[in-house]
Amino acid sequence: MKFQSRKDIVFQIITFGFAMIFIGVAIVIFVESGLEDRSSFLSSLLILSVAGLLLWMYLDTTYELTPIELKYKCGPIRGAIPIEDILEIIKGKTLWSGFKPATARNGLIIKYRKYNEIYISPKTNDTFVRNILELNSSIKVTANSNS
């Protein structure tokens, strides 16, 4: 079962704000130097690539539950976690540091193996948790006390 990532206003402002700043800087560099200065052209291309990467990650973040694993995709970043390795899910909390293929706050922190964790933000946390518990009922689910 596939899940789209929820998109909240904070991440929209950050993503599109930085993308527009990068695009603006690239345009200014390109207009001031034109095609004659190769290093300015390459700088503009690099800055536009970063803006493109930000937008790709924002627009293409999904999660998929299969009978054996949780697959995640965030732009070019892809991975999978075996369902049997998932120990705990914390609902309604935001992980501010660490690995976050997510585009919203108040998502799910998934703890797996011994010390690993990943933060995701499916459209609806409850539906995602219900579906993953159907695959592995031994996963501990903890609700954040602030939510």
TrEMBL record:
The Uncharacterized protein YyaB-like PH domain covers which part of the protein?
Answer: 61-136
Q: Which InterPro entries match?
A: PH_YyaB-like (IPR009589)
What's one Pfam family here? bPH_4
Instruction: Output the GO biological process annotations, alphabetical, semicolon-separated.
Output: bacteriocin immunity
Please list every transmembrane segment annotated in the UniProt record, as residue ranges: 9-29, 41-59
Task: Kindly state which keywords UniProt assigns to this record, in alphabetical order.
Answer: Membrane, Transmembrane, Transmembrane helix
Write the protein's name: Uncharacterized protein YyaB-like PH domain-containing protein
